Amino acid sequence: MTTLTSRNGPLHIGPGHPLVLISDALRVNGRAKLQLRPTVDGEHEGLARARGGPDVVARMVALAQSGAAAGRNREAGMDMVDIMVNDADEVILLPAIAVAVHDAVGCPISLDSRNPEALRAALSALQPHKVLINSVTAEVRVLEVLLPIAAEFGAAIIAMPIGDVHGLPKDVPGRVAEATVILERAAAHGISREDVVMDAICLASSVEPGSMAVALETLRRFRDDLGVATTLGISNAGHGMPTRSHIALAYLLAAVPWGLDCALVNPRTPFLIEEVRAIDFLTDRDPYGKRYLRHYRATHPPSPSRRPQCP
Q1: Per-residue pLDDT tens for 134-164?
Q2: How far apart are CA 82 and CA 25, in angstroms?
Q3: What is the CA radius of gyration of the chain?
Q4: Domain ranges of the chain
Q5: How would you write 17-35 as a 3-class SS string?
Q6: Any idea which fold 2-30+46-297 has?
Q7: How far, in Å, CA of 78 to CA of 71, rounded?
Q8: How many CB atoms lie within 10 A of CB 37?
Q9: Per the confidence metrics, is the pTM higher than 0.85?
Q10: Burial of 266: CB neighbours in 10 Å, binned 0-12, 13-18, 19+
Q11: Any bridge partners for residue 80, and if so which?
């Protein structure tokens, strides 16, 4: 079991716990390049003086608060958010967005980056909370850069079993082999398997027929043989198909009984929360349906006509 922390408290990822939903909506894709002006001593003044920087942070916070992440009422939204910054000044924006989202929403944070400087800045800014780094592959050049950072800050990692030997494995043995490489190198850096969430790799069935069966069996092997928490990037499932959100949701629900513990998802997927609460109940991740009932009550307040009347 992997445990992350935030202002909202601990969040457990693993067997016997409800499926954790990670919003994949918080993305900065080069829409706001930062122009940094140096101070007198030559250092960058950073976000406060960077053109467009504060606006980007504000948009990400608003997106998180609009339902892309769980706020004060966890029954109505995502459990945590994944933050990615592409083609912008990541070293400044990543920590700024991460801190602002955490302050506003309070949920655990996943940092979707392999930029060592940006990760160090964001992890330092989010201390003392336990954060998730997304992701570390089995490639030596990636392992030797990112694992020391995870160990230094006590972060957990999403491990992607893509490596130097098998590349992106198309079969279960290849994925288990690359996952084992990551676990061994992580242990050498003092990172226990409790701090590793292993990605079973969701490929688009439109171009990789049979890939879902491979992913499901990989989940089972990760759970039963390696004893690690598991994840999938579900949005890939329906790539190239119409109404891809329907395919992604079907994939997600099918994966839970095979050992899926958390998933990166599009928070705007219709009926996502309702269906996940239902599958948690049916697979004994929510004994007696207590969480299912809390969600129902939170989203279906009694109408005035049905409320008891005072005598």
Answers
A1: 999 999 999 999 999 999 999 999 999 999 9
A2: 8
A3: 20
A4: 2-30+46-297
A5: CCCEEEEEEEEEECCCCCC
A6: TIM Barrel (3.20.20)
A7: 8
A8: 10
A9: yes
A10: middle
A11: 22
